[in-house]
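agent> step 3/5: call structure_predict on target 'Probable peptidoglycan glycosyltransferase FtsW' (Mesobacillus selenatarsenatis).
agent> reason: downstream docking stage needs a structural representation; sequence fetched in step 2, passing through unchanged.
tool.input:
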Amino acid sequence: MLKKILKSYDYSLIIAIALLCLFGLVMVYSASMVTAIQRYDYPSDFFFQKQKFNLLLATFLFVVAAFFPYKAMKSTKVLLPMVVFILGGLGALFLFGKVTNNALSWFEVGARSLQPSEFAKLSVIIYLSAVYAKKQTYINQFNKGVVPPLVYLILVCMLVAIQPDFGTAAIIFAIASTIIISSGMNLKNIAKLILFGLGFLAPFVLFLQDEIFSETRIGRFTAYSNPFTDEQNTGYHLANSYYAIGSGGLKGLGLGESVQKLGYLPEPHTDFIIAVISEELGIFGVGFVLLSLAFIVLKGIHIGLKCKDPFGSLLAIGIASMIGIQSFVNLGGASGVIPLTGVPLPFVSYGGSSLLQLAIATGILVNVSMFVKYEEKYKKDKTAQPKPAKAVVNQNSFKFRS
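tool.output (status=ok):
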């Protein structure tokens, strides 16, 4: 039994995730070594050592999630504690949280920090997937099948937005939207949800307009259009990212040879790590990251389409969309395609909360893939078994005595 299960795992997906994480570990060291000394007065390998510990813990969580049957997660015994834990964690930030980059988003746990909103992303995926999977028979009844699960989504997005962290709240909402669209409800209900969402957001935006349209956030939009008009102020981040990306060319300057990480590029090991990769390893390094991320996302979508269980299908699509959306936001911000939002690049950027959450999420994805492959193979083997031959009696072999 165990041998059959191990053979059913998608090792191409596991290898892609492992390679991207190891590549990210190397690039975190290269990107952070100067920042650690210059800005924080830490040893050059400070962030590398912390990320190495994060990766070891993430590996353990990945293995646990990969072996834990995903179908058990739709049980109320799992969903209810998860919902309480996430809402409680997000609420507790306002009592015990730490302000970082003008947002109350972190808990200090000893020498380490924990960001609950990262785990909120995965909780929304699991919760919406489980509830909409159970409601398949009446998914198009708006008041009964569509609206109730959205209460949790609204609470999570509100608690994250008022930290304030509008970028993460928008990402959570976008991830949830992919699950809602994929849940099987008709276009009429989706249109109703859009109107419902706009009606809900309007007073919320008016109430928080000073925070949402602050000078700093407006500056990100003006810098996005042309960062060189105010290069030393609002356009500073993006302009230096452009310099780094443009300097790399085809082959790059060489590993460890980035100039922009020497105090010019802010957050080179987190938000702008792709700029350092481009400068040091050129198009080959960037290509490796893009192809690896694309492979993981497309593989996740493929698993979701193949899975016949609604819960497993929505889980896979939700996890794939989370990785894809977050990758687009990070890469788009660093390259000037969209305004900057301060989101880490999945598997590559420095950050414990992001890496641990992704490890659990991709472990679940690998588990869904294993069940799909195992059930397909088991059914195929079962139907391929030859039917037992019917006994053929040779009547001439019987002799009757008078």
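agent> step 4/5: record observation. Residues 389-402 have pLDDT under 50 and may be disordered.
agent> proceeding.
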